Amino acid sequence: MVELMIGISRDLPEEDEIQVEKKKKKPLDLEQAMPLLLQAFEDGNIDTIINPRLLKVYDPKEATRMVTCATACVNHLAHRRPRMSQMVVPLNTWVLISYFKLAYNILRRPDGTFDRHLAEFQDRRVPANRTPVDGVFSFDVIVDRATSLLTRVYRSAPGGEAHPSIVEFERPLSTEIVPVIIFFHGGSFAHSSASSAIYDTLCRRLVGICKAVVVSVNYRRAPENRYPCAYDDGWAALNWVSSRPWLRSGRDSKVHVYLAGDSSGGNIAHHVALRAVESGIEILGNILLNPMFGGQERTESEKRLDGKYFVTIQDRDWYWRAFLPEGEDRDHSACNPFGPNGKSLEGLKFPKSLVVVAGFDLVQDWQLGYVEGLKRAGQEVKLIYLEQATIGFYLLPNNDHFYSVMEEINNFVSSNC
Amino acid sequence: MKRERPDTGGGGCSMEAGKSKMWKEEDGGMDELLAVLGYKVRSSDMADVAQKLEQLEMVMGNAQEDGISHLASDTVHYNPSDLASWLGTMLSELNPPPNFDPPAQQTQPRSITPLVESSSLYDDPSDYDLRAIPGGAICRQIEPPSTALREPKRMKPSSASSETELTRPVVLLDSQETGIRLVHALMACAEAVQQENLKLAGALIKQIGLLAVSQAGAMKKVATYFAEALARRIYRLYPQESLDSSFSDLLQMHFYETCPYLKFAHFTANQAILEAFAGKNQVHVIDFSMKQGMQWPALMQALALRPGGPPSFRLTGIGPPQPDNTDALQQVGWKLAHLAETIHVEFEYRGFVASSLADLDASMLDIRPGEAVAVNSVFELHRMLARPGEIEKVLGSIKAMGPEIVTVVEQEANHNGPVFLDRFTEALHYYSTLFDSLEGCGVSPASTQDQVMSEAYLGRQICNVVACEGVDRVERHETLGQWQTRMGSAGFGSVHLGSNAFKQASMLLALFAGGDDYRVEENNGCIMLGWHTRPLISTSAWKLAKKDPE
């Protein structure tokens, strides 16, 4: 890669560099090339090292990434070479997710307790904002005083109005169908909240892309609140949403509800949908992004990918131990819905599902097993398998997976119109 | 390494999402995508940060299982948005630098002990807060390699997502029919006032009165106060500002007892002051908000318990003139002197009467060479915004006092916008949240009285925001972002409050009824206390910014 890009050090005569390579069979002199590479990288001017034969016709961004990769790969100290994970995500994504990984390691104590105060201190939050930003405004609602259950509602600004007044918040939706997506944030049941910046940003994007209302649920977290608290909160939020007159839309004037979530949020979406089915509340669809499922068995993907792409079996185990009732193992139906303790969905009017699985997610075998379980029960499910994706790809809009998945979600919620 | 650029004051940065320049971005080279998520990493530092992350992972992996637990329990974390400096701290914690000092400087692993031992929080107000801040207030002497940690930061006005507009937060309680109609009526009335349609406004006031009767709880009380304030504005029955200051002090004391806001304010400000006084033998606190001196017993206790013994402690308390000539300031001083004697802290006190903080001058305060000065202001600075030039004068005289630290506690709200209707709306949301948090405090008759007085305390603020104008409107609250800009422009640099202050404040709150619903939040080195997701007050700490070498 280095050779392709920069040709060769300047000491060689000016000829077609690659041909020179083949003729003279002289390996690229890394000792000479390295300082040039590093200097160019620091200066921010890669023109000095790019093969002049390219006549400066190249995409600076692509070239920069190649330089970064090349520089890193030929680094003489093997332990300083980048991990595999660094090769498959943009650098800023890698930094973000690696930071979470390490910061979260410190929060989890070996005895199963969690440093909640430090976690709250570190969580980057944003307040709700009734001033529209990029056409989306938000406000928080206390849905259940007893449990302090709060949801953050995101809506498009009505007719471009600068500051929707308080009455506008509960203005009914249009006669066009407006999907209402109840969103459960991720965090492996222990981390984050509805006001976390990463999720506030994601919810705002969903509003814009899907022309939907998003209701993000601030469910109670583990280990302080184990199963079934998160599901109870999801259920309470669903009931609240379904009974809001101002969330009705369409000519049939009803609330068009979808459930969505990433990681633990995906798991919650499944279980809330299950309760809904048993109670007759209609849900039009489930959207599960890298949903968190597991089981006692160690699957092939877990063994193969353990520790390779930000996530370890050990941390997954910790979070399940923190969420599941004491003494239960990972074949509990919350963790393993189609496992030995799961129940069959055959004959039930379960909503259609959109399940997104990342190819570098170590729990993918469980996620794929979930999809199979739905199919076996005759339920409608669409699987999107992203080979080159890691966890968290949807947090930053800097990769193709992000855009393709957003598009799929949009199609999923508009196809009922 | 990092070039300090002159502060551009308010709103000087453009954040057009379309332009993503590769190397040099308008906003100081920060990676835009991470900034939106609350993380500040310069694009040019990204590779270096990545390398440090790898390094940290390796070191953490090498440590034994509980070899990293001290990173959570003992290490003080600062400004979690700054990944580079966080990494620096973590790496130095796990790899002490070669010139690490002998055990004398190494603090033992300290557990965070709760603030209150056994005494209840609802004691007689004349019984001072004799609770010490746990010894962990003073941070470790180890400086992390990164110099960014405690440097005065270039303050940007609020977060990346709301560069030009102020954030308008709101938490709704689940709407009841009449609740919404009542709010609607209040808003309509305010709008009529805005448009000077006083006839309509008057009619709406009557309607509000009827609706309020059928309400219950916080909503009813808030509506009543706002309606009264509107009525005063409409009929020009402006409230008398010159109420006996001892009465307003009394109201504030009830507010102090009922809910944690003032205690939080005192606690967090004291943390910062303690840290700034580390290693100093003569300290002098200048308190702009003396009142009954409720903040100081705890600080004095903490100073008394300091390893190495307490410094000599001077306190200058500033307060307004008393109409009946009683020397309230001096009486407070006597009480504190008595306390100081019992805990063996060398104490000197001076009460200083001033009608306005703008009348103050550093030279009047007898600041002695060699003493470390702290200036403390709790809910006072915003009053200076009522007359042009006053805040600048006050900030200037603070600078002239040469303080080690300036602690500022303010309401987290924008009640000082130019448009009446906006102020009204903001205040309505703000005080609704505050009143909601007071509900459920009045269980016993004594605490019911506390609650009523607290509501009256807040009601006076509401009245001032809504009914008054010009120099009479002194409750000119502004947001943390606005204060940060102002302090930055005036030549102050931010001193970050860390995770130890955060944790201890969180634990303090857990002791209050409804503790779950109070939230402590870290924001750009400052700490805020709110109810549910709505921040209500903020504590920030400042020092004199170093002059730019360029």
From TrEMBL, chain A:
Localisation: Nucleus
Alpha/beta hydrolase fold-3 domain sequence ranges: 181-394
PROSITE patterns to which the protein is assigned, alphabetical: LIPASE_GDXG_HIS, LIPASE_GDXG_SER
Gene Ontology molecular functions: gibberellin binding; hydrolase activity
Keyword tags: Gibberellin signaling pathway, Hydrolase, Nucleus, Receptor
Coiled coil: none
Hydrolase in keyword set: yes
GO BP, sorted A to Z: floral organ morphogenesis; gibberellic acid mediated signaling pathway; positive regulation of gibberellic acid mediated signaling pathway; raffinose family oligosaccharide biosynthetic process
Domain of life: Eukaryota
Catalytic residues in the record: 263
Listed SUPFAM superfamilies: alpha/beta-Hydrolases
Cellular component GO terms held in the UniProt record: cytoplasm; nucleus
Similarity remark: Belongs to the 'GDXG' lipolytic enzyme family.
Protein name: Alpha/beta hydrolase fold-3 domain-containing protein
From TrEMBL, chain B:
Sequence similarity: Belongs to the GRAS family. DELLA subfamily.
Organism: Tetracentron sinense (Spur-leaf)
This protein's record includes keyword DNA repair: no
Key words, A-Z: Gibberellin signaling pathway, Nucleus, Transcription, Transcription regulation
Domain remarks in the Swiss-Prot or TrEMBL record: The DELLA motif is required for its GA-induced degradation.
Signal peptide: none
PROSITE patterns in the cross-refs: GRAS
Principal localisation: nucleus
Region (VHIID): 252-317
UniProt GO BP: gibberellic acid mediated signaling pathway
Coiled-coil portions: none
Annotated stretches, region: Disordered: 1-24
PANTHER family the UniProt entry points to: OSJNBA0084A10.13 PROTEIN-RELATED
Role description: Transcriptional regulator that acts as a repressor of the gibberellin (GA) signaling pathway. Probably acts by participating in large multiprotein complexes that repress transcription of GA-inducible genes.
Superkingdom assignment: Eukaryota
Domain Transcriptional factor DELLA N-terminal residues, every copy: 31-98
Localization, UniProt: Nucleus
Lineage: Eukaryota, Viridiplantae, Streptophyta, Embryophyta, Tracheophyta
Motif interval(s): VHIID: 283-287
Name under which the protein is recorded: DELLA protein
A Gene Ontology term for the protein's cellular component: nucleus
Spans annotated as PFYRE: 373-464
